[in-house]
Every structure is written in C-alpha cells, then in structure tokens.
Amino acid sequence: FVERTLAIIKPDALGKAEEIEDIILRSGFSILQKRRVQLTPEQASDFYAEHFGKLFFPSLVAYMSSGPVITLVIARDKAISYWRELIGPTNALKARETHPDCLRAIYGTDDQRNGLHGSDSYSSAEREIRFFFPDSIVEPIPVGE
Ligand code: CMP
C-alpha cells in the first residue's frame, strides 16, 4: 500500500542532490514535496529531540545546521521500510563494508555525517513530514490497505 515518508539529503551529500533525486525516482518513488532549507541549531534540536541527551547530540545538531539540506516527501508502496533499506545502515563507514550498494555507503561520510535520513516508522514519518511541511494539506493515507 502507498505510504509517504520523509527523506533528507544532509549537508555532506547536498552536492549530489540531483543524482540522489534521480535514484529516488528510478526506485519507484514519486516526489510529492521538496524544500531546500538551512536549519537553525534550534530547529535541528527540535527535529532530533528523541536523541537529546545522547553523547552525539550536540555534534549532530551542529552538523545538521552546518549547511543547507533538502527535505523530500516521497511516496510509493511500503515507502518507509523501502527507503530505509535503500539508504542502508546508519554508519556510512560500516555500510561500505556490509552494504556497499546502499546510498549511505555511496554518499555518506561516517557514523554521523551519513548523507541521508529516512523516517523510521509510520508515526515518525507523519511527525517529520509535518515538521518540514506544516502547511501542506494532505489526505491521510489509509493504514493497512
Ligand atoms: P539519522 O538516521 O538521521 O538519525 C539520527 C542521526 O544521528 C543519524 O542519522 C546520524 O546522523 C546520527 N547518529 C546516530 N548514531 C550516531 C553515533 N553513534 N554517532 C554519531 N552520530 C550518530
């Protein structure tokens, strides 16, 4: 069934945005919304609030606000899990060993600057899409169809 998810092309992968968008389209997604944004540290903290308190949180916030990012709402059958599979494991360095074809292996840098983000569940997809596209009027996607 068709789902939406939020993808982010992070600062370290921004130079490859066109190439990545081509791959997204060739992988059967449609791009429903797209925004290029420069996050403030406050916005980056808000977006990653669930990681507050972790050792890597301050540098994650600094990284995500270090330059523009491209946020995309993408849709296809099983978009959430499929996009996560396509981007691969969090750590881009390890991904190069274990999943050399995944997008983080190709476009990411290390365990933090991993090039791409994908929502990890239906509820985070809904929250993250609203975070970047608060004004968009979207039909709720029926669950389990
Ligand atoms: P993302 O999937 O966007 O969600 C949380 C982000 O935190 C993750 O990608 C990485 O950018 C970063 N992150 C997760 N784990 C670590 C870690 N162990 N060390 C540094 N950064 C991390």
TrEMBL record:
Q: Where is the active site?
A: 117 (pros-phosphohistidine intermediate)
Give the location in the cell: Cell projection, Cilium
Record-level Gene Ontology MF annotations: hydrolase activity; nucleoside diphosphate kinase activity
Q: Which GO terms describe its cellular component?
A: cilium
- For the keyword Hydrolase, the answer is yes
Q: Where is the Nucleoside diphosphate kinase-like domain?
A: 2-140
Q: Which residues bind ATP?
A: 10, 56, 84, 90, 104, 114
Task: For this entry, list what GO says about its biological process.
Answer: cilium movement; CTP biosynthetic process; GTP biosynthetic process; negative regulation of oxidative stress-induced intrinsic apoptotic signaling pathway; spermatid differentiation; UTP biosynthetic process
What coarse category fits the chief subcellular location reported for this protein? other
Q: Which domain of life is it from?
A: Eukaryota
Q: Mind listing the UniProt keywords for this protein, alphabetically?
A: Cell projection, Developmental protein, Hydrolase
Q: Which family does it belong to?
A: Belongs to the NDK family.
Q: What is this protein called?
A: Nucleoside diphosphate kinase homolog 5
